[in-house]
Description:
By secondary structure, the chain is α/β, with parallel strands linked by helices. The protein contains 14 helices and nine strands. Helix 13 links the parallel strand 7 and strand 8. The protein starts with a helix and ends with a helix. This is Stage II sporulation protein P.
Amino acid sequence: xxxxxxxxxxxxxxxxxxxxxxxxxxxxxxxxxxxxxxxxxxxxxxxxxxxxxxxxxxxxxxxxxxxxxxxxxxxxxxxxxxxxxxxxxxxxxxxxxxxxxxxxxxxxxxxxxxxxxxxxxxxxxxxxxxxxxxxxxxxxxxxxxxxxxxxxxxxxxxxxxxxxxxxxxxxxxxxxxxxxxxxxxxxxxxxxxxxxxxxxxxxxxxxxxxxxxxxxxxxxxxxxxxxxxxxxxxxxxxxxxxxxxxxxxxxxxxxxxxxxxxxxxxxxxxxxxxxxxxxxxxxxxxxxxxxxxxxxxxxxxxxxxxxxxxxxxxxxxxxxxxxxxxxxxxxxxxxxxxxxxxxxxxxxxxxxxxxxxxxxxxxxxxxxxxxxxxxxxxxxxxxxxxxxxx
Length: 390
């Protein structure tokens, strides 16, 4: 081997060795930084999950096709090309997707961020059907108003309730396994407020969503499911504590904690509300009778929301089978445009249920409560039978 060849080999080896050394030193420094940095600034699975959610899902499918070309055959015509790296980089760095205008305007237009949430298991995907939560000043919530409730609506009960209770083969006995409360307990309905026309003003201290809770509890009891109903006036409690209406979940959280601590038998927790949407979005006619539509709201602002989501989606499916169109679906809501937790992190099987809207009547609401009680009863007893067998 001549001197020139030997010199070239030495130079090549030196360059490669230098690159290897730089590479391993860089890896060492990166690992040192990641392990030494404060926990708040470290990469986490949540960060990586957030990044991957911003990427087009077809990118991952294309990665799979690189390993198994047979998967390419499943692509729709004209979509077989992998997205451009520049487009992917743009979406990751800007959080703006050219095909989704919500990502561009969501943080600029007031109220538009609600569309970042997801409506699952719905009969339609009309964005105008998304729930609207009233948030009036507390003094407006507490303002005295005239309310009217027909006597037959106020005293409406299922006939021969006591007789049917005694004949019910399945019962929880003296155990209350369902807990119902109303964080926005003064949410009322315009048909029962003759001098009120503003949806945000549909509030009343007595004729409100709590009557639906009472009716639902009575029907569940008739079906053998022991139910506890909380009657706390959270509006008044907020006023006593000098808090604002948007802090309602802070005070209702204390009540839920107290109820769960005092009754270990509680298996399901329902927080009943009414939507601020108008009648055409919240009413369904079934076999000639009008019902107030139901919507399940699941807060995703805590790590264990999947358990609640499972219950909500199963109930939605059962309601759709028995009463087509009654359920508006399951709405996932994070903390970007509201509470995002709704006390659902405190216990398994916790649901927020929207009953109707500002234009529905108690008669329509009671029908929906009866329907939910019927469906939930079947769901509950089926679950109990499975647990008994296992």
